[in-house]
C-alpha cells in the first residue's frame, strides 16, 4: 500500500505543476521564510515549475531542485486557457479579466504566526535604522529635487467618547450581546 501511494504521488505531482519563469535572480529556500536556509540560487529567466503558494512565497522546482522563492520573483507561464488544476489557479491570479477594474497587489509581505513567535530583539538591527535618518535640511533638499510640494494638512478631530445606551434601549440580542 505504501508503495502505491508513493508511486501515485510521483505520477500526480507533475500534473499539478504550472510552468513558470524567474523574473529576477533569487535565492531558493527550504521553506516559505526569509530566514529559511538557502538551498541554491535561481537565475533570472530560468524555467521552473510552480508547485504552490503560501503567503508571499511560491514553491518552485527546477530539475531535481525544489524550494521557495518570493512571490514577485516568479511568473507563471501557463496558457491563458489552462483550465483546471494548479496551473489554472496560478494563472487566474496573475491576469486581468476586466480592463475597467484595476486590481494591483505588490509587495505582499507580512509576518506569519511562526515568525512572530520566534521574533527576538536585535540591537544591531535597531542601530541600522540610523543609516536611514536624515535631517530636515536634507529632506527639504530632496523634496525640491524631485519636485515635491509642501502641503499643510489639518489634524484629525479628537475622538469622542462612546455614549452609553439609555436604559430600556439595550441590545436587540439581549444583555450579553447575543441571545
Q: What does the model show?
A:
The protein is an alpha+beta fold and 179 residues long. The chain has helices at 2-16, 85-92, 113-117, 123-128, 136-145; strands at 18-22, 26-29, 38-42, 47-54, 57-62, 65-70, 74-76.
Offer a few descriptive terms.
disordered N terminus, SH3 type barrels, 179 residues, 5 helices, alpha+beta, 5-stranded antiparallel beta sheet
Short description:
The protein is α+β, with helices and mostly antiparallel strands. The chain has a domain at 2-92: Roll (SH3 type barrels).
**Total number of helical segments?**
5
From the alpha carbons, calculate the radius of gyration and give it in angstroms. Answer: 25 Å
Structural class: alpha+beta
Going across the major beta sheet, what is the strand order? 6-5-4-1-7
CATH homologous superfamily grouping of the domain at 2-92: SH3 Domains
Shape: extended
Taking pLDDT < 50 over at least 5 consecutive residues as the criterion, the unreliable ranges are: 2-15, 80-96
Strand content: 15-25%
**Fraction of residues in helix:** 10-25%
First and last CA, distance: 52 Å
What is the fold-level CATH name, i.e. the topology of the domain at 2-92?
SH3 type barrels
CATH architectural label of the domain at 2-92 = Roll
Number of strands: 7
Q: Write the element-wise H/E pattern from the N-terminal end onward.
A: HEEEEEEEHHHH
Give the CATH level 1 class of the domain at 2-92. Answer: Mainly Beta
Query: What is the arithmetic mean of pLDDT?
Result: 74
The main β sheet shows up as: 5 strands, antiparallel
